Write a sequence for this structure.
């Protein structure tokens, strides 16, 4: 279901601003699919080569089973740092050239990964991929904010997240299929091919969405002003913190998944992508439900309810994991993790939309600040929990409990202790 026409007549604009020219880009369904594909390239880059960890460790003589997780961490580090640049640059030169430049960098990283002679060079290639991949994440959100606001934006983001979350279901299977017929380096060839598809599709169909009146100078004072505005907005900072902590839960799970389901605990082998996909599928279902309900119930009601449910489920999960000494039956582990991911997915797209809502006039810079902050926070949390893997699922269960509780505290601080409200609708900054 597309948002009301009144919210779909062009890029978001400040009060009193002249209407933008008629939209000439893709229709609603194609718009969502393209933005989701742009953002989903990150999920492919993270998840598709998880089944290759044993082969990579074998080829590079890596003894520490936790060391391959660094391939995720360095990607997220490059991804997080680069996000701080794409927004201000796109606010000055436009979304299209900034996105195209990012994809070109991603392509270079993919080629380097295919040719990497050592694990250290592979880590460098992953960092370059992260720098390029950040463009899709940042500019995807900025493009959505250019076009939509409020609950409409939350609905569009939910649809984008739904498509985006289908990727983790199929990405490990894609990587496993490549491994079945060839070398793990071919997985990076598949990433390169997908990036070329994004580049061609975006270049052909997506016009510039940044309104001319919202262009900002690319000087340090203007950038600093935009960053200060984004960081100094209580609603933006609080919900970005909550979002980063919840994303940390996902990265902790992704970083630990291969060790838990394959090499370290359950030894599923080729069945690993199935277990991974079942849990990711719960997130896809939740985001679809959120997209259907958000216009009726509002972002805060759905996200606050999902977060409280996640905190409760995380406690239940921890109790069950302790009862089985950290080695529960596989169906029980999949069920509890899927339940946590399901509840978490009611919060994340709404938190992102709430954080962006006050900052329409600096959407690119705001998306950069939010993306930079949430990614680095999530990468740090995910690295700490992932590296704590000890042959049991207890560290992961403790991580879900702690990070979800901290996320709830961040929301309570932001809302001054009042949950489930409608929230103020601030005017965009001039």
């Amino acid at each position: 279901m597309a948002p009301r026409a009144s919210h779909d007549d062009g890029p978001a604009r400040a009060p009193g601003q002249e209407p933008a020219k008629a939209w000439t880009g893709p229709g609603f369904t194609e718009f969502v699919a393209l933005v989701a594909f742009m953002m989903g390239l990150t999920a492919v880059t993270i998840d598709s080569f998880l089944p290759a960890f044993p082969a990579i460790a074998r080829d590079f003589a890596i003894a520490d089973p936790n060391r391959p997780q660094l391939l995720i961490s360095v990607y997220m580090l490059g991804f997080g740092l680069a996000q701080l640049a794409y927004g201000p640059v796109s606010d000055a030169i436009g979304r299209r050239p900034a996105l195209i430049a990012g994809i070109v960098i991603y392509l270079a990283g993919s080629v380097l990964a295919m040719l990497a002679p050592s694990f250290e060079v592979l880590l460098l290639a992953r960092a370059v991929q992260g720098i390029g991949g950040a463009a899709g994440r940042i500019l995807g959100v900025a493009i959505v904010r250019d076009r939509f606001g409020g609950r409409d934006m939350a609905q569009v983001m939910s649809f984008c997240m739904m498509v985006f979350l289908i990727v983790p279901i199929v990405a490990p299977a894609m990587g496993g299929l490549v491994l079945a017929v060839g070398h793990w380096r071919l997985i990076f060839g598949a990433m390169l091919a997908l990036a070329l598809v994004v580049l061609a599709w975006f270049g052909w169909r997506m016009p510039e969405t940044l309104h001319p009146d919202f262009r900002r100078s690319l000087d340090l004072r203007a950038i600093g002003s935009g960053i200060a505005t984004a960081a100094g907005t209580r609603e933006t900072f609080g919900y970005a913190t909550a979002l980063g902590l919840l994303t940390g839960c996902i990265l902790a799970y992704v970083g630990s998944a291969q060790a838990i389901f394959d090499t370290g605990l359950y030894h599923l082998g080729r069945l690993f992508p199935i277990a991974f996909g079942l849990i990711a599928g719960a997130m896809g279902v939740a985001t679809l439900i959120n997209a259907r309900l958000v216009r009726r119930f509002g972002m805060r009601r759905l996200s606050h309810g999902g977060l409280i449910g996640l905190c409760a489920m995380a406690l239940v999960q921890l109790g069950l994991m302790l009862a089985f000494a950290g080695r529960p039956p596989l169906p029980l582990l999949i069920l509890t993790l899927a339940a946590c991911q399901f509840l978490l997915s009611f919060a994340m797209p709404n938190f992102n939309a709430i954080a962006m809502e006050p900052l329409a006039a600096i959407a690119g810079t705001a998306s950069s600040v939010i993306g930079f902050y949430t990614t680095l926070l999530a990468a740090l949390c995910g690295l700490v929990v992932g590296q704590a893997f000890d042959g049991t699922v207890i560290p992961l269960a403790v991580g879900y409990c702690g990070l979800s509780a901290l996320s709830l505290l961040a929301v309570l601080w932001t809302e001054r202790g009042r949950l489930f409200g409608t929230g103020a609708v601030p005017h965009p900054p001039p």
Q: What stands out?
A: The domain at 26-220+231-414 is CATH 1.20.1250.20 (Growth Hormone; Chain: A;). The mean pLDDT is 85.
